[in-house]
Amino acid sequence: MPTITQMVSDIQNKVLNNVSSMFAPQLTEYACQLAVLLSNVGQEVADREVAYRKKLLAIIEEKPDLSFAKAELESQTSDEYLTYRKAKAVEKSIEETEKALKNRANALRGERDIVQST
């Protein structure tokens, strides 16, 4: 089964390669798919953030003499932080792609309405 990142990438590639020939319903369908994926990513981001925060807390507990800023920097070199940032990046990518698809679909509907009213 493909990962969420792969599914998002597939949608982005389909749209990118065919955007000029797509109609509003197709774009809206892709936006809906992205909305569903976004809800899944939201939970993943939350889980990854908790893992990162636990790592930060562990560093603070292991090294009590370390300042918070240095503990935070050290935790940001961890795998937990990397996976958290990747999940946040996927979340942002989905949000931006979904927004662009909705805007394009609305623009196409507007063009259609203008043509039909003339």
Please explain how this structure is put together.
The protein is mainly α. Helices cover 86% and strands 0% of the residues. Helix 1 packs antiparallel against helix 2 and helix 1 runs parallel beside helix 4. The protein is elongated. 19% of the residues are buried. The model has no long low-confidence stretch (mean pLDDT 91).
Major sheet: none
Count of alpha/pi helices? 4
Q: Care to count the β-strands?
A: 0
Helix content: over 70%
Give the overall shape.
Answer: elongated
Uncertain stretches of 5 or more adjacent residues: none
Give me the strand/helix succession: HHHH
What distance lies between the first and last C-alpha atoms, to the nearest angstrom?
Answer: 48 Å
Rg, Å, rounded: 20 Å
> How large is the share of residues in beta strands?
under 5%
- Which structural class do you get from the secondary structure elements? mainly alpha
Averaged pLDDT, please?
Answer: 91
Task: Please write out the topology.
Elements lengths: L3 H15 L5 H39 L5 H8 L3 H39 L1
Helix pairs in contact: 1-2, 1-4, 2-3, 2-4
Question: What keywords describe this structure?
Answer:
118 residues; mainly alpha; elongated
In short, what is this structure?
The protein has 118 residues and is mainly alpha-helical. The chain has helices spanning 4-18, 24-62, 68-75, 79-117.
